[in-house]
Write a structure and sequence with these properties.
- The chain has 300 residues and is an alpha+beta fold.
- It has three domains: 71 residues, Uridine Diphospho-n-acetylenolpyruvylglucosamine Reductase, domain 3; 92 residues, Alpha-Beta Plaits (2-Layer Sandwich), CATH 3.30.70; 92 residues, Alpha-Beta Plaits, CATH 3.30.70.2740.
- The protein is 37% helix and 21% strand.
- It has a seven-stranded antiparallel β-sheet with strand order 7-4-6-5-9-10-8, with helices on both faces.
- α4 packs antiparallel against α9 and α9 runs antiparallel to α10.
- The longest helix is centred in the last third of the chain and has 20 residues.
- The protein starts with 13 loop residues before the first helix and ends in a 21-residue tail after the last helix.
């Protein structure tokens, strides 16, 4: 399979990352944007340009104003320059793909994996997103699976072997119907492309309300089950993809805007998902920010 060009459906700017304190597929091991921001130039509302932080890996002098501006979504000022911490390139990854007959089995496997180690990547796709991606890429994904986990280890040599062995055993112990482990870069990348393609694939099915609620890891099974219950109660399609290694989920609510009743049910489901996350001691946004759509759920 030839992976699609990611630039055909994705764009991500450094400024946007910093303004929303964005995350992504490798945050479970490497952290989020704020962990790599050393300094900023910010223009305040009166036009004053200020510099915060600088090219220092450690700095404990005074308040951490740099961290305050990361994730502020433009409410404190406009970020015009960023000084970032860089890391050496990671070694080649080994990849694991596991499918499950139930979402509970998959989330239990996630808890078992994260209790023992921090993989370089630990991602989740549900049946709706699996089928949407298969419709678009035709790569032979299991359409009958209730959930699929995608994990990676970029540790070196024996450590990578031990990590992969631990993840395979965790998936098997929690009822995985199929487990594939590979150190072939092309094969592993094909599955990563499948995960990255989930949002554009689901968008082919209708208008999407994109959420990014997060919960503490022990509450992950309750969140996934609760989202399934909301979808059933409101008779809406919700595709669930997730950075499950750190509890950050992306419920994608699909609806037809020309159908007033369907649109209303989608909006109700959107709010109920956020209410559910809050009840589970979670957050209404793990990485995309509040914006205008979620203002009503932002606690004062």
């Amino acid at each position: 399979m030839v992976p699609p060009d990611p630039s055909s459906f994705e764009i991500c700017s450094i400024g946007g990352n910093v303004a929303t304190n964005a995350g992504g597929l490798c945050c479970v091991k490497y952290g989020i944007t704020t962990d790599y921001v050393l300094g900023l130039e910010v223009v305040l509302s009166d036009g004053t340009a200020v510099r915060l932080g600088g090219p220092r890996l450690k700095d404990a002098a005074g308040l951490s104003l740099t961290k305050l501006f990361v994730g502020s979504e433009g409410t404190l000022g406009i970020i015009t320059e960023v000084t970032l911490r860089l890391l050496p390139a990671q070694p080649p990854s080994s990849t694991l793909v596991a499918t499950f007959a139930s979402t509970r089995q998959a989330t239990d496997a996630v808890l078992a994996i994260t209790a023992a180690l921090r993989p370089a990547m630990l991602e989740y796709m549900d049946r709706v997103s699996i089928n949407a991606v298969e419709d678009m890429l035709h790569m032979g994904l299991d359409r009958d699976a209730a959930a699929m986990l995608l994990a990676r280890s970029d540790s070196r040599h024996l450590a990578a072997e031990l990590e992969m062995k631990s993840m395979v055993e965790a998936c098997q112990a929690h009822g995985a119907t199929e487990v594939l482990a590979t150190d072939d870069p092309a094969e592993g990348e094909a599955f990563v492309v499948a995960r990255r393609s989930a949002i554009p694939a689901v968008e082919r099915r209708g208008t999407v309300l994109l959420e990014d609620v997060g919960v503490p890891l022990p509450k992950l099974p309750e969140l996934v089950a609760g989202i399934e219950a909301i979808a059933a109660a409101r008779a809406v399609t919700i595709a669930l993809i997730a950075h499950v290694g750190d509890g950050n989920t992306h419920p994608l609510i699909v609806f037809d805007p020309a159908d007033a009743d369907a649109a209303a049910r989608a909006q109700l489901a959107f709010g109920e998902v956020m209410d559910l996350a809050i009840r589970l001691d979670g957050t209404i946004t793990g990485e995309h920010g509040v914006g205008r759509l979620k203002k009503a759920w932002l606690v004062d």
